[in-house]
Fold each of these.
Amino acid sequence: DAGVTQSPTHLIKTRGQQVTLRCSPKSGHDTVSWYQQALGQGPQFIFQYYEEEERQRGNFPDRFSGHQFPNYSSELNVNALLLGDSALYLCASQRRGANYGYTFGSGTRLTVV
Amino acid sequence: GESVGLHLPTLSVQEGDNSIINCAYSNSASDYFIWYKQESGKGPQFIIDIRSNMDKRQGQRVTVLLNKTVKHLSLQIAATQPGDSAVYFCAENTGDNYGQNFVFGPGTRLSVLP
């Protein structure tokens, strides 16, 4: 049973560019959350998707947007990249209404130069 | 605002000793907490959780204690092994009925000495 899978594993982008990160949730999970983890810090909540809609959002600018597809997979898009967007981006999935925590993927390491 | 923090950013213990990692949280309304372990190059891995109607929960070699009076969590690891070396985060659920939303602390790095 595959867990949460993310692609790509590493990515280098230039300031001002746009990036799309992808996530496939664990089998049986329908809710996907995205987190940003800067080096040496804890993960910060970006947003959560369920039934193809954004349900909750953290304190991130509109440059961060997402999408969820009918098969529950999800994308995170970041526009107008800044150097400060360099981080590990984590995807986490869960079955809606479950009384336990997320399952995390291994993340995408984004470097903005 | 809501926040979860850790008292000790780094902790070094001898192999075989017990480890205690502490965490303070600020939202007294939070009802669910998780400890995650993150190894280098990997995503956070669930270790153990506890709900606010409990003050202690035990797993295999791990115990979580919750003191709601002082808003404090701790993770105890018995007979610490080299494989326990990692960064440990406590996370507090601040989500609503639509789904969980965890606030993570900055983490504690646990180093196990041979």
Note: The radius of gyration of chain A is 13 Å.
Amino acid sequence: NAGVTQTPKFQVLKTGQSMTLQCAQDMNHEYMSWYRQDPGMGLRLIHYSVGAGITDQGEVPNGYNVSRSTTEDFPLRLLSAAPSQTSVYFCASTGSYSYEQYFGPGTRLTVT
Amino acid sequence: GIQVEQSPPDLILQEGANSTLRCNFSDSVNNLQWFHQNPWGQLINLFYIPSGTKQNGRLSATTVATERYSLLYISSSQTTDSGVYFCAVDQNTGFQKLVFGTGTRLLVSP
């Protein structure tokens, strides 16, 4: 099992550009989440999904879109990048019968 | 919303020493997890422990749900224990919308 994978590892964007952060898991987990981590802070939930076709907002959803067309994939879209979105982004997944969250390696995004 | 406070914010240890990290939360929870973020940024799940005590090797954790705190014990610390330790909680049943504390940064020197 590869677990939770994320691409790219690093990305630099200019203000106003759009991009998609990819996340995939091969553990057949129903639940997937996106978090951002800013310096000196814990993680904050952006969006989450409880299954294919079902998504909802977390604590800091503005400026981000998600979709879940398959169980395995949960991409995060930045619609129009802003410097405030400079952060490290983590994707996580959880099985239906387990409460433990498993995290991907993260994507470090810089918006100039 | 629920507040999660971790202490101490920073901790420096000599290799071989023991330590206790604390997590206080402001309301009852259905889910509490401890994570270790290594110096390369990878987050590893250590414990799912909404109540009671668990042990895994040199690490153990205790959550006293009625008093709204959890403790993570690290015994005989090693340099590989360095990193940031996060406590995260959730009040919901079903899908967990974890709320993270700001972490304890641990440095273990040889």
Note: Residues 64 and 78 of chain A are 5 Å apart (CA to CA).
Amino acid sequence: GNSVTQMEGPVTLSEEAFLTINCTYTATGYPSLFWYVQYPGEGLQLLLKATKADDKGSNKGFEATYRKETTSFHLEKGSVQVSDSAVYFCALSDLADSWGKLQFGAGTQVVVTP
Amino acid sequence: DAGVIQSPRHEVTEMGQEVTLRCKPISGHDYLFWYRQTMMRGLELLIYFNNNVPIDDSGMPEDRFSAKMPNASFSTLKIQPSEPRDSAVYFCASSLSGEPTDTQYFGPGTRLTVL
């Protein structure tokens, strides 16, 4: 079956540092890829998504590019803020496997210090 | 729209008691999902509904868990009897369609503690 692997946390950064969270996937078909973010005490919310190869999703200064050749969807932000402290989940949805249900990685906690 | 609404936000109960979690999806969304989040297992999909009909309940851990969706604006997840290992955060999510490209909108979750 399909799976999502993302780097373990916690990732601790200083404000204005560059952030990268690696995400790789295995998929039977041609999945859609997502990054969800969970702020403390809240539910998950969509950060960005990409639905086909070479698509770039972007939102709130975050970016991720769908790389089919390397089966990756790494999340990046050029200058993080304390308010970016959260848990970030990479996820995929693939009609060719499990009716397209959303499959999540384990999550990566990011801590940004002033 | 108010988003997905869940209640209660926190629930503390004793082992053996019945627990009912509630969810109101976003109006017009045809799909509703129940997830469980724990440190050990991460996010797990328990069950999902399409137009109020349960479609896939393969993630429901055992017969103690049951879920219903009597109408388009309300769903419940019931645990009877509850056990300490059921302690987790339970999320409800909804989406407009079941398309792989569609976004799921999550509620704030119910933190369940079973003593």
Note: The longest strand of chain A covers residues 86-93.
